[in-house]
Amino acid sequence: MDEPIQKMEKDCSAIVEAQFPEIEAHAKSGQITKSFEQLLALEKQTRSAADLASSTRVLKKFIQLTFEAQDWKLMQEYIVLLSKKHGQLKQAITRMIQESMECLEKTPDMKTKLELIDTLRTVTDGKVYLEVERARVTRILAKIKEEEGNVNEAADIMQDLQVETFGSMEKREKTDFILEQMRLCLLKRDYVRANIISKKINIRYFKETEVQDLKLRFYDLMIEYSLHENEYLQACKHYRQIYDTPIVKADPAQAKKAVENAVLFVVLAPFDNEQSDLIQRVYIEADEVDTPVYRDLLKCFITTELMRWAMIEQIYGPTLGQNTALATGDEAARKRLKELHNRVVEHNIRVIAKYYTRITTKRLTQLLDLPDKDCEEFLSKLVVSKTIYAKIDRPAGLVSFAKSKHANEVLNEWSRDINSLLGLIEKTCHLITKEEIIHSITKVI
User: Fold this and answer.
1) pLDDT tens digits, residue range 416-427?
2) Which UniProt keywords apply (predicted)?
3) pLDDT tens digit string along 33-46?
4) Which of 66, 122, 167, 368 has CA 20 to 30 A from 261's CA?
């Protein structure tokens, strides 16, 4: 944050202009100590006069001269010394730190670079007006640690900063910083913290067209998290957000990939009201891109007809096998393939429950292509989740999908049916009478 503007007591720009050539000449001739003595005197003069422009030039000159002399130890000493001077203007210190940061990429070796980073982080620690510079230096340090293979240390370094509270940092840079924190947490396999950090980003910000790259990065990270947690419905939503991005829609290949993944994960998601609604929306989006196989697979789950797992494997297996979510062949891919089989079985049970009030367990196993034990397990799971109502009579070998009704409910239902029947009879009698009257009038005429 910028400090309140101090009133300049004296303009030292003429003095600075006059002494700089002499100071530079001393430095070039090897009299570095003499040039710094002159600079220190000039720094005190500009600081006492509260001349921001001149103070800034003098502090930056310290950094420039030490860099030209390649005396990195001296540079670090002066950074610490000048930042602690009483009455030093905050804006001048900020410019000096920024000048020092430009030298980071020009250090002769990694040891010198790390020492300079450590000095800058020490100086900026606890200073609100240097919070952005501290964040940038910290990110450079985290990148170095990651390149060295210390992912855990890099993630811990990044977590020390709460950039969402930095008022002086631009929104884009702030979002980019948070995304980097998320990425390192996922690399560290700290999924709980990654999820917590993701909530610091306001997704309404992604509606702006200038931040589409950040939007795609965010949802890619969220998909990685959702797949680890087996939250397939959330993964589907994230892929829909990716598809809804203009730069993705403009690229047919990316749009097709996003829709195909959205289809796959909405199918893998357990059935509930939200999934049922989302599957209809995804089906509409599947019509917008050229994905006939995925669209047909989705149609199978929307249509209330039985599916044979063997036929699903035969028709859709080769295409689904090319999807990265199923093609890796690792444990996660095998688990997702098993989940797809489970969703097919669950769909079939819902269809059977809709068309049958009662069915034998033998016939049920034939329709589901499953042994008795697995059939009972799937039925129990759907009953517990209240997706269907079912009762199993093991001795009789029957499964009943009709709810047993209380005597009052039966009487009320019978009463409604009788009232409806009497209403229809009355309406029919009225129509017959009307026709007879019309016919008799026509006959008289």
Assistant:
1) 989 999 999 999
2) Proteasome
3) 888 888 888 888 88
4) 368
